[in-house]
Design a protein that fits this description.
Elements (H helix, E strand, L loop, with lengths): L1 H5 L1 H5 L5 H4 L29 H11 L21 H14 L3 E5 L2 H12 L5 E5 L4 H10 L6 E5 L5 H10 L6 E7 L11 H10 L8 E5 L17 E5 L13 E5 L1 H14 L5 H12 L1 H20 L4 E5 L9 H9 L6 E6 L3 H9 L5 E2 L9 E3 L11 H7 L5 E5 L5 H13 L3
Parallel strand pairs: 2-3, 2-4, 4-5, 5-6, 10-11
Antiparallel strand pairs: 1-7, 6-7, 8-9, 9-12, 11-12
Helix pairs in contact: 5-11
The protein binds pyridoxal-5'-phosphate.
The site of pyridoxal-5'-phosphate has 16 residues, from helix 6 and helix 7.
């Protein structure tokens, strides 16, 4: 047994954990003067060794011939490919066990590119409510101008109720994509991805498969892997946990080879890939992704515990508080490996009390965005979700007393101290 472990061939076969591969995977030092780290390939174009090589690279890039076994796409031009992007994409694939990844200049460009690629005039997009404000705007204000309409569903609707709603709108033959954001921001409401898959399959016609696309920004890529629960595509705002330092904007899409070929091709012609510098920063971020997110989740549990018993707090929205017997608990257990580091709470009072709390914090910063090393706090009803209709805000529990916190990597006792002193101030 011990002999087998020492056998180098056996050692070669170990499936390393993603966090063990974030520093080295996909990078060959010998191609960069032995540099331990992948340099920033700050270049627009790449020199071909010969005209024949240039021709051969283009044949693959433009789909005129298939890649030979083990052939890598030659470097041509940074809108098509660049080492910082390619290596980053290979590393991102490891967390979600995806076949392919494409990185984008923002989460919104990742999301809008997927929608533009897989939807055509006359099609209907089914989407979970609430979705990120930018996504909501794209679905309800931009896509209708191209003849594409969205129908929203909430987590309280069953498979039958969703199907019935689609039918009553005469859309049963028009659904081409189910777009899901779970947990839903800012209340941490969960959607069952298995149910979303069933909705998609019910509306699929032979070859015309309805695509399930999941925005996994809130939980990923560490705590939830939608591809393993029936999703076809996963999208990220890499601005959040993946970037993790509030210093860049980026996005990513992951999925199988055939779907990603379409996503990548549209990216090439929209030209909304990320630049090499951002790609390099994201590779640096990925090295600490697991330690950052693990610490953030540990801190969140402590903060949630503190808020739970505070007299000025009416209700805490934290996944770790779900109880067995609650249908949401079953979805949580099935889909996630952690309660995450995003929590919200209803403060006793209304906007005035919420604003006083926000204005009196000393350590935690008042800013939108999430998933970064520093804790961030905001007021969804007047900030991130102010564009959501009042009817939907009431339906989804986004009230004036709701405050959202993204927990960072600070010492948990300092975060709690700050919350405690800001809550203590009477107005
Ligand atoms: C921030 C965010 C987006 C948009 O990403 P950008 O990088 O800001 O374009 C999309 N979805 C969710 C859930 C987000 O939090």
């Amino acid at each position: 047994m011990s002999f087998a472990l020492l056998n180098p061939n056996v050692m070669d076969q170990r499936n390393f954990h993603p966090e063990s591969l974030m520093m080295t995977h996909g990078y060959k030092p010998e191609l960069s003067e032995g540099a331990i780290k992948c340099p920033i390939f700050q270049t627009s174009t790449f020199v071909f060794k010969s005209a024949e090589e240039g021709k051969s690279f283009f044949q693959v890039a433009y789909g005129k011939r298939e890649k030979e076994p083990n052939e890598e796409l030659g470097l041509i031009y940074s809108r098509l490919n660049n080492p910082d992007l390619q290596i980053l994409e290979e590393r991102l694939c490891l967390w979600d066990q995806a076949e392919e990844c494409a990185v984008f200049e923002s989460g919104m460009s990742a999301i809008s590119t997927v929608m533009l690629e897989f939807l055509r005039p006359g099609d209907v997009l089914l989407y979970s409510k609430p979705v990120y404000g930018g996504t909501d705007h794209f679905i309800n204000k931009v896509l209708p101008q191209y003849g594409i309409n969205g129908i929203g569903f909430t987590s309280s609707q069953s498979l039958e109720e969703i199907t019935e709603m689609v039918k009553s709108k005469g859309a049963e033959d028009k659904v081409k994509m189910v777009f899901v954001e779970t947990p839903a921001n800012p209340t941490n409401t969960l959607f069952d991805l298995e149910v979303c898959r069933m909705v998609a399959d019910q509306h699929s016609r032979n070859e015309d498969k309805v695509i399930v696309c999941v925005d996994n920004t809130y939980m990923g890529p560490l705590w939830q892997h939608p591809l393993a629960h029936g999703a076809d595509l996963v999208v990220y705002s890499a601005t959040k946990y993946i970037g993790g330092h509030s210093d860049l904007i980026a996005g990513a899409v992951l999925g199988n080879v055939s779907l990603m070929k379409r996503v990548r091709t549209l990216r090439t012609f929209l030209g909304n890939m990320t630049g090499p510098w951002t790609g390099w920063l994201l590779m640096r971020s990925l090295e600490t992704l697991k330690v950052r997110m693990t610490k953030q989740a540990e801190n969140a549990e402590k903060v949630a515990g503190f808020l739970q018993n505070h007299p000025k707090v009416e209700k805490v929205y934290y996944l770790g508080n779900l109880m067995p017997g609650d249908p949401q608990y079953a979805v949580f257990k099935k889909q996630m490996t952690s309660a995450g580091a995003m929590l919200s709470f209803d403060i006793v009072g209304g906007e005035k009390e919420a604003f006083s709390f926000l204005n009196n914090l000393k350590l935690i910063k008042l800013a939108v965005s999430l998933g970064s090393t520093e804790s961030l706090v905001e007021h969804p009803a007047t900030m991130t979700h102010s564009d959501v209709s009042e009817e939907d805000r009431n339906l989804l529990g986004i009230s004036e007393k709701l405050v959202r916190i993204s927990i960072g990597v600070e010492h948990y006792s300092d975060i709690i101290w700050d919350i405690e002193q800001a809550l203590a101030i009477d107005i």
